[in-house]
Here is the input.
Amino acid sequence: MNSLLLLLLIIFYCVIGEAQAIKPATPEPAQPPVTQLRFPYEDKCGSPLYESMAWESVEGRVMDVIDGNTITIVLKDKSRRRITLVAVDAARPGRPFGDMARKKLADLVLNEAIEIWVLPSWGKSKRLTGVVHANGKDINQALIESGIVRYKRPESYSVSDYTACVYRILEGEAREAKRGLWGHATP
Here is the structure.
């Protein structure tokens, strides 16, 4: 009797297992191979996949916005660092567009958790420059694209060639569209 009961239980679990296996699975969306990814401006700037990815990520929270391209962050270890947005040239507060650039940057990052892409030697330097990301957005790019700041040629290896190329193109588009400071006679 016990062996019959055991046999029935085994058959029952096998049937249940097959019924669950028969359920149609939702197919995973196909992802293109990395080599088939396309990037905006790839035709003009090349593929960023072929560049060195030697940058490190530094995370913190923005505590102060000094001007249109400088912020103060608090790192996880509670230390504070001043960050300069690479390739961004903003007018100083009190000058034309200086206060607007500071306000725009504050609107984008103040009190936000951010990630900064910097060179691996960042810890050795008192001055920290990099590409700032907040809420999935490249903040340096957003400022240049708005026309509120100028693109400034970055130091070697402080930003990828692809990113620098995109920033140059976006400044040109802002100039052409007369956005921000480019809408005035003497920017």
Observations:
- The CA atoms of residues 15 and 21 lie 10 Å apart.
- The chain has a mean pLDDT of 83.
- Residues 2-22 form the longest helix (21 residues).
